[in-house]
Amino acid sequence: VNEFDIIRECFDKPVTDNSVVVGIGDDGAVCRPDADRELLCVIDTLVADVHFPGALSPEDLGYRAVAVNLSDVAAMGGRPRWMTLALSIVESDHGWISAFADGLFEAAHEFDVRLVGGDTTSARQVVVTVQIAGDVPQGRAILRSGACPGDSIFVTGTLGDARAGLALYDNGSVGNCSVDKCSVDNHSVGDRHARFLRQRFARPSARVGIGQALVGVASAAIDVSDGLAGDLSKLLQASGAGGRLQINDLPLSEALAAKHNDDAAREMALTGGDDYELCFTSSAELERIQCMADDFAVPITCIGMVTDAPTLDCFDGDVAVDVEIAGYRHFG
Ligand code: ADP
Ligand code: MG
Known about the structure:
The chain is of the alpha+beta class. It has helices at 3-11, 58-75, 94-110, 161-166, 192-202, 208-213, 228-239, 254-259, 262-271, 286-296; strands at residues 20-22, 30-31, 37-47, 79-89, 114-122, 127-137, 152-156, 218-223, 242-246, 278-282, 300-307, 312-316, 319-321.
């Protein structure tokens, strides 16, 4: 099959939405934004063996490519609207591509975003780039730079799961992922904890609803893609602030705690990437944040406080601990 058949059969689905004036089929898409809102643009690329293991199914890859972008929209407090897809594949295997498209459209339907165009090419390895345009009420986007000393630091969901899940894939080492596989019990890869952890890597949580609810509540936000310690440091740096992080308060899933000893679990929660939870700061009452957690049925945990120190300082109870802050880096 050539790329035109691929596009027609797998990606060119009818769009019944009057925000899409011209969709797939012309040189470009024409979309109609709402008058009182600002446009938000995000893009993320997934490269085979850098961002995902070859063992990831095409459905999960399609879902994940959308979810990681939705997570950026969520971190800005935005509503996702339209997306484009640049797909580079090694061979035009119809079964693979249509499975990939199924996963992609599953995420698109779940989060109400429309595929309006793209590009399809051959390459030596699979590279998937999704771009999402979303919108926010004028002047209300949540930035990294708004944290103030005294604000509490929160995180949604649980941390470290995706890193533990990645290690459970065959050849689960990608990029500079450095999970000690010896701490993974490979004999029970099929059990429910292992399935949960793998799912957390394959189909990341995109906290789109919570992100929009945080507009006017969060002073700053970032999504946790490269590891909490590194991503929180970026937020604090952008805000010209420091922080105190209680590593004993990091939210860990039952599955992560069951599969790894305390030290390994905490390490993954602090530095493992790919969780796509939201880390945000807020001066709101804890009860208000708790209500939000209840509304969305997602735990939201206070993990520290913004300070006027120059650095992010980590504590286990009252004891200061040294933490390797650096998140994932592609170069150097
Ligand atoms: P052009 O030569 O103008 O770039 P193409 O022939 O590459 O156009 O693409 C034809 C149409 O199909 C365009 O509307 C483009 O946006 C869309 N398209 C191409 N690849 C994809 C894809 N993987 N997913 C969705 N739409 C795609
Ligand atoms: Mg053209």
